[in-house]
Input
Amino acid sequence: MSKPSAPRREADTEAKAVLRSVRISPRKLDLVAATIRGKKAATAVNELTFSKKRIARDVKKALNSAIANAENNHNLDVDRLVVAEASVGKGLVMKRFQTRGRGRAAGIVKPFAHLTIVVRERAEAEDK
Output
């Protein structure tokens, strides 16, 4: 006998993709995530394709995953999808050190971040 499954947290018109433990600081990742918030899914994919930021490739993969989840798992219309949320959170931090002169050491932090993308299908009335 197993536990009953947890109810779905997103609305019926939403789909989500989570990218965990990306080796970049949350602050830098949030700059790229801010460029796609609130935009149509197709426009956001286009923007990420031609972005010069290194992390844009990983964000694009996560966005494409959210779009695929919406289409395959929740039967949503891909042409009416909008990036409802693109939230960034802190992950773990690897701490390293670099040797300096006179026997001293300097700390180095290598942060990780988490990215959550939620796409939502717009209603018919909002399209017009």
Remarks:
- The longest helix spans residues 56-72.
- The chain has one domain: 14-121.
- The mean pLDDT is 95.
